[in-house]
Specification:
With 415 residues, the chain is of the alpha/beta class. It is built from twelve helices and 21 strands. The strands form three sheets. Strands 4, 14, 15, 16, 17, 18, 19, 20 and 21 form a nine-stranded mixed beta sheet that branches. The termini are far apart.
Length: 415
């Protein structure tokens, strides 16, 4: 987290002390670095500069409007999986013509909104969805731009909950069935074939499975071209990981070098869909220690953030770095960092060696991706605020929810 560094004895986000953020905005609080977000996008885009390419930020990693706005200003396209995410792109000033729409269960209303907005492509994930989309487009008097999301049946070597390219996955069309589905699509007057799509998983740290999957998809694209079905783009998905602990994910340059080799001499535009890689290390979750509680074999540090603010540790047993904003010189001891939610799974980090006192601030790293976007109101907890740091300035890009807002759309039973 180069944008999050110690200056003197305190952790800063760019030029702002995190204690100052906590004093002004309270905790828990998501803090993002504009510098890091910008650098991450530019590193990805510039690495692919030698290829006809489009970087589409995957909104599911973090769909906060200010972040989408920033990437739109930088020239990003977008990968979405719902009508709500499409509305966020439009509200943030993104260009719908650079949007690819994925997802296995699109509704009629979502299809209609995508077609009306003029998205670049709708990624079809089943034969039934293709027929349904064709009917919706025909009813509107439009032609739906389509890619088929192909399941290459490649093991990405990641957590089973975020592996999406295996045969047993709910995502995509089986590789053996894809050519026949393209032939069917070519015969539908309300369908316009644009490309082919794949995505084998998330938090990938090895290029080998990506290379294998892309090679299989390129072979299929060539076979389709031989039948007269030519594609304008090939979408290789995203999923390249970041470092949370001791992972060694490929650099943007290494990833691009592999794609340059595979795409050399091809005419199709390359589409990539990074999400976590652009935002993950650009954010921290700032939290305060409420109570220290002795325990066996470890003590507990009970903080004001919880699993509703950062679900990944509970859901995936994920490890996030946890650092004291103002480290103490006291003798450290081992703590489980836990939240106030009434669940034993409510932990943010286990067996962490820290020197702590009640009232201390902690920064949980890698919280730019899948933190706010997966947050909830479980235990009737208002969602935290979000703050963007830009040099020495801070901007509250989402205010903290109030208790009253939690049930503003509910009503009591009539008498």
């Amino acid at each position: 987290m180069s944008a999050f560094r110690y200056a003197g004895s305190e952790l800063h986000a760019e030029g702002v002390a995190l204690s100052a953020v906590a004093e002004r905005h309270g905790t828990p609080c998501y803090v993002y670095s504009r510098e890091a977000l910008t650098a991450n996008y530019r590193a990805c885009a510039s690495a692919l500069a030698g290829l006809p390419s489009l970087v589409c930020y995957a909104l599911k990693a973090n769909s906060s409007l200010a972040i989408v706005d920033l990437f739109a200003r930088l020239g990003s396209g977008f990968d979405i999986v719902s009508g709500g995410e499409l509305a966020r792109v439009v509200a943030a000033g993104g260009d719908p013509r650079s949007v690819v729409f994925s997802g296995v269960g699109k509704s009629d209303a979502e299809m209609e909104a995508a077609l009306a907005a003029g998205v670049l492509c709708i990624n079809v994930e089943s034969a039934s969805e293709l027929e349904h989309l064709a009917a919706v487009a025909a009813r509107l008097g439009l032609r739906a731009p389509v890619s088929v999301r192909v399941n290459p049946d490649v093991d990405p070597g990641t957590h089973p909950y975020i592996s999406t390219g295996l045969r047993e996955s709910k995502f995509g069309v089986a590789f053996a069935d894809a050519a026949a589905l393209y032939r069917r699509a070519a015969g539908l007057p309300s369908i316009e074939i644009r490309g082919i799509d794949m995505h084998i998983g998330s938090q990938l740290t090895d290029l080998a499975p990506i290379r294998e999957a892309v090679t299989r998809v390129l072979g299929l694209a060539d076979a389709l071209a031989a039948e007269g079905i030519r594609l304008s783009h090939i979408d290789v998905g995203g999923g390249v990981g970041i470092r949370y602990r001791d992972e060694a994910p490929p650099s943007p340059a290494d990833y691009a070098r592999m794609l340059q080799e595979l795409f050399r001499g091809r005419r199709e535009t390359l589409v990539v869909e990074p999400g976590r890689r652009l935002v993950g290390d650009a954010g921290v979750l700032l939290t305060r220690v409420r109570y220290l509680k002795p325990g066996t074999p470890r003590a507990f540090a009970i903080v004001d953030a919880a699993m509703n603010d950062l679900l990944r540790p509970s859901l995936y047993d994920a490890w996030h770095p946890i650092d004291a904003v103002r480290p103490r010189r006291d003798e450290p001891r081992r703590y489980d960092i836990v939240g106030p939610i009434c669940e034993s799974a409510d932990f943010l980090g286990l067996d962490r060696e820290l020197a702590l006192a009640e009232g201390d601030l902690l920064a949980i790293g890698g919280a730019g991706a899948y933190a706010m976007s997966m947050s909830s109101n479980y235990n009737s907890r208002p969602r935290a605020c979000e703050v963007m740091v830009d040099g020495s300035d801070t901007i509250e890009i989402r205010r903290r929810e109030t208790i009253a807002e939690l049930f503003a759309h509910e009503q009591r039973l009539p008498r």
